Amino acid sequence: MTPQARRDDLIRAALDLFGSRAPELVTVDDIVARAEVSRPLFYRYFSSLRELQVEALRTVTDGLIDGLAGLEEGPPETRLRAAVRGLIDVADHYRAGYIALLRGGSVIATSETDAAIDEVRNRAVALILDALGVSEPSPLLLLTLRCWTAVVEGALLSWLQERTIPREALDTWLVDQLTAMLGTTAAHDQSRTFT
Protein backbone atom coordinates (compact mmCIF):
# COMPACT_ATOMS: atom_id res chain seq x y z
CA MET A 1 0.00 0.00 0.00
CA THR A 2 1.35 3.46 -0.87
CA PRO A 3 1.97 5.93 1.97
CA GLN A 4 -0.98 8.08 0.84
CA ALA A 5 -3.25 5.02 0.59
CA ARG A 6 -2.23 3.91 4.11
CA ARG A 7 -2.85 7.42 5.44
CA ASP A 8 -6.27 7.47 3.76
CA ASP A 9 -7.01 4.03 5.21
CA LEU A 10 -6.31 5.30 8.73
CA ILE A 11 -8.57 8.30 8.13
CA ARG A 12 -11.31 5.99 6.83
CA ALA A 13 -10.95 3.79 9.91
CA ALA A 14 -11.33 6.86 12.15
CA LEU A 15 -14.39 8.05 10.23
CA ASP A 16 -15.94 4.58 10.46
CA LEU A 17 -15.50 4.72 14.21
CA PHE A 18 -16.90 8.27 14.31
CA GLY A 19 -20.06 6.80 12.82
CA SER A 20 -20.76 5.05 16.11
CA ARG A 21 -19.21 7.36 18.69
CA ALA A 22 -17.93 10.89 19.13
CA PRO A 23 -14.37 11.54 17.91
CA GLU A 24 -13.14 12.39 21.40
CA LEU A 25 -14.11 8.86 22.52
CA VAL A 26 -12.07 7.13 19.79
CA THR A 27 -8.55 6.04 20.81
CA VAL A 28 -5.43 5.21 18.83
CA ASP A 29 -5.95 1.57 19.83
CA ASP A 30 -9.47 1.66 18.35
CA ILE A 31 -8.16 3.08 15.08
CA VAL A 32 -5.25 0.67 14.66
CA ALA A 33 -7.55 -2.26 15.44
CA ARG A 34 -10.06 -1.09 12.82
CA ALA A 35 -7.33 -0.44 10.22
CA GLU A 36 -5.53 -3.67 11.17
CA VAL A 37 -2.15 -1.95 11.59
CA SER A 38 0.31 -1.50 14.44
CA ARG A 39 0.63 1.51 16.74
CA PRO A 40 4.11 2.31 15.36
CA LEU A 41 2.66 2.36 11.85
CA PHE A 42 -0.05 4.77 13.03
CA TYR A 43 2.62 7.13 14.36
CA ARG A 44 4.54 6.95 11.11
CA TYR A 45 1.62 8.74 9.42
CA PHE A 46 0.24 10.89 12.24
CA SER A 47 2.17 12.57 15.04
CA SER A 48 -0.82 12.37 17.37
CA LEU A 49 -4.41 11.29 17.68
CA ARG A 50 -5.37 14.97 17.49
CA GLU A 51 -3.73 15.31 14.07
CA LEU A 52 -5.72 12.33 12.77
CA GLN A 53 -8.95 13.72 14.26
CA VAL A 54 -8.42 17.04 12.49
CA GLU A 55 -7.59 15.30 9.19
CA ALA A 56 -10.64 13.07 9.49
CA LEU A 57 -12.91 16.03 10.23
CA ARG A 58 -11.32 17.88 7.30
CA THR A 59 -12.43 14.93 5.15
CA VAL A 60 -16.00 15.62 6.35
CA THR A 61 -15.80 19.30 5.40
CA ASP A 62 -14.27 18.41 2.02
CA GLY A 63 -17.20 16.03 1.50
CA LEU A 64 -19.62 18.84 2.33
CA ILE A 65 -17.92 21.16 -0.17
CA ASP A 66 -17.95 18.42 -2.82
CA GLY A 67 -21.64 17.85 -2.11
CA LEU A 68 -22.31 21.53 -2.66
CA ALA A 69 -20.26 21.54 -5.85
CA GLY A 70 -22.46 18.91 -7.49
CA LEU A 71 -25.37 21.22 -8.16
CA GLU A 72 -27.85 20.15 -10.81
CA GLU A 73 -28.68 22.39 -13.73
CA GLY A 74 -32.08 24.01 -13.80
CA PRO A 75 -34.07 26.62 -11.92
CA PRO A 76 -32.69 27.98 -8.64
CA GLU A 77 -35.08 25.98 -6.45
CA THR A 78 -34.09 22.68 -8.11
CA ARG A 79 -30.41 23.49 -7.72
CA LEU A 80 -30.79 24.53 -4.09
CA ARG A 81 -32.81 21.40 -3.25
CA ALA A 82 -30.06 19.25 -4.80
CA ALA A 83 -27.38 21.11 -2.80
CA VAL A 84 -29.28 20.71 0.46
CA ARG A 85 -29.86 17.02 -0.32
CA GLY A 86 -26.12 16.65 -0.88
CA LEU A 87 -25.37 18.30 2.47
CA ILE A 88 -27.85 15.99 4.23
CA ASP A 89 -26.27 12.93 2.58
CA VAL A 90 -22.74 13.87 3.62
CA ALA A 91 -23.76 14.91 7.15
CA ASP A 92 -25.66 11.64 7.55
CA HIS A 93 -22.76 9.58 6.19
CA TYR A 94 -20.30 11.20 8.62
CA ARG A 95 -22.88 11.64 11.40
CA ALA A 96 -20.63 11.62 14.49
CA GLY A 97 -17.89 13.60 12.73
CA TYR A 98 -20.39 16.22 11.56
CA ILE A 99 -21.86 16.52 15.05
CA ALA A 100 -18.36 16.86 16.52
CA LEU A 101 -17.49 19.57 14.01
CA LEU A 102 -20.48 21.73 14.85
CA ARG A 103 -21.23 20.91 18.47
CA GLY A 104 -20.36 23.73 20.79
CA GLY A 105 -17.48 22.97 23.13
CA SER A 106 -16.25 19.94 21.22
CA VAL A 107 -12.74 18.96 22.25
CA ILE A 108 -12.04 18.39 18.55
CA ALA A 109 -12.66 22.04 17.66
CA THR A 110 -9.52 23.86 16.55
CA SER A 111 -8.78 26.97 14.55
CA GLU A 112 -8.17 24.66 11.58
CA THR A 113 -11.55 22.92 11.87
CA ASP A 114 -13.22 26.29 12.44
CA ALA A 115 -11.62 27.56 9.21
CA ALA A 116 -12.84 24.45 7.38
CA ILE A 117 -16.40 25.03 8.62
CA ASP A 118 -16.20 28.67 7.51
CA GLU A 119 -15.08 27.46 4.09
CA VAL A 120 -18.20 25.28 3.81
CA ARG A 121 -20.41 28.18 4.88
CA ASN A 122 -18.80 30.58 2.39
CA ARG A 123 -19.12 28.01 -0.40
CA ALA A 124 -22.82 27.54 0.41
CA VAL A 125 -23.42 31.30 0.25
CA ALA A 126 -21.51 31.60 -3.04
CA LEU A 127 -23.48 28.76 -4.62
CA ILE A 128 -26.81 30.24 -3.57
CA LEU A 129 -25.82 33.62 -5.00
CA ASP A 130 -24.86 31.85 -8.24
CA ALA A 131 -28.16 29.98 -8.32
CA LEU A 132 -30.00 33.27 -7.82
CA GLY A 133 -27.94 34.98 -10.51
CA VAL A 134 -26.69 37.64 -8.07
CA SER A 135 -23.09 38.78 -8.57
CA GLU A 136 -23.13 41.80 -6.24
CA PRO A 137 -25.24 40.97 -3.18
CA SER A 138 -26.47 43.65 -0.84
CA PRO A 139 -25.36 43.51 2.79
CA LEU A 140 -28.89 42.45 3.80
CA LEU A 141 -28.91 39.58 1.31
CA LEU A 142 -25.51 38.36 2.56
CA LEU A 143 -26.78 38.53 6.13
CA THR A 144 -29.85 36.52 5.14
CA LEU A 145 -27.82 33.79 3.46
CA ARG A 146 -25.39 33.54 6.36
CA CYS A 147 -28.30 33.26 8.78
CA TRP A 148 -29.84 30.53 6.61
CA THR A 149 -26.61 28.50 6.71
CA ALA A 150 -26.88 28.65 10.51
CA VAL A 151 -30.47 27.37 10.21
CA VAL A 152 -29.25 24.48 8.03
CA GLU A 153 -26.48 23.58 10.49
CA GLY A 154 -28.83 23.68 13.47
CA ALA A 155 -31.51 21.69 11.66
CA LEU A 156 -29.00 19.04 10.55
CA LEU A 157 -27.58 18.71 14.07
CA SER A 158 -31.05 18.23 15.52
CA TRP A 159 -32.12 15.86 12.75
CA LEU A 160 -28.99 13.71 13.05
CA GLN A 161 -29.49 13.37 16.80
CA GLU A 162 -33.28 13.00 16.95
CA ARG A 163 -34.61 11.94 13.50
CA THR A 164 -38.02 13.41 14.38
CA ILE A 165 -38.98 14.21 10.78
CA PRO A 166 -38.57 12.10 7.64
CA ARG A 167 -35.39 12.70 5.68
CA GLU A 168 -37.44 13.36 2.52
CA ALA A 169 -39.14 16.32 4.21
CA LEU A 170 -35.94 17.93 5.50
CA ASP A 171 -34.55 19.34 2.23
CA THR A 172 -37.96 20.71 1.17
CA TRP A 173 -38.45 22.39 4.53
CA LEU A 174 -34.97 23.94 4.46
CA VAL A 175 -35.39 25.31 0.93
CA ASP A 176 -38.82 26.66 1.87
CA GLN A 177 -37.17 28.37 4.85
CA LEU A 178 -34.72 30.07 2.50
CA THR A 179 -37.51 31.12 0.13
CA ALA A 180 -39.39 32.70 3.04
CA MET A 181 -36.26 34.45 4.30
CA LEU A 182 -35.48 35.80 0.83
CA GLY A 183 -39.04 37.11 0.50
CA THR A 184 -38.77 38.95 3.81
CA THR A 185 -35.35 40.32 2.89
CA ALA A 186 -36.64 41.53 -0.48
CA ALA A 187 -39.41 43.44 1.31
CA HIS A 188 -36.81 45.26 3.41
CA ASP A 189 -34.01 45.63 0.88
CA GLN A 190 -34.65 48.61 -1.37
CA SER A 191 -31.57 47.97 -3.51
CA ARG A 192 -32.88 44.91 -5.44
CA THR A 193 -35.20 41.98 -5.69
CA PHE A 194 -33.95 38.39 -5.75
CA THR A 195 -36.86 36.05 -5.03
What is Rg? 19 Å
Distance between the termini: 52 Å
Number of E strands: 0
Shape: elongated
Question: Could you describe the largest sheet, including whether it forms a barrel?
Answer: none
Helix content: over 70%
Task: Using brief descriptors, characterize the structure shown.
195 residues, mainly alpha, 9 helices, 75% helix
Describe this structure in words.
The protein has 195 residues and is mainly alpha-helical. The protein contains nine helices and no strands. The chain has helices spanning 3-18, 28-35, 39-45, 49-69, 76-93, 95-102, 111-132, 139-162, 167-188. α8 (139-162) packs antiparallel against α9. The chain starts with a helix and ends in a 7-residue tail after the last helix. The mean pLDDT is 83.
Summary, kept brief:
This protein has nine helices and no strands.
How is the topology of this model organized?
Blueprint: H1 3-18, H2 28-35, H3 39-45, H4 49-69, H5 76-93, H6 95-102, H7 111-132, H8 139-162, H9 167-188
Helix pairs in contact: 1-2, 1-4, 4-5, 4-6, 4-7, 5-6, 5-7, 5-9, 6-8, 7-8, 8-9
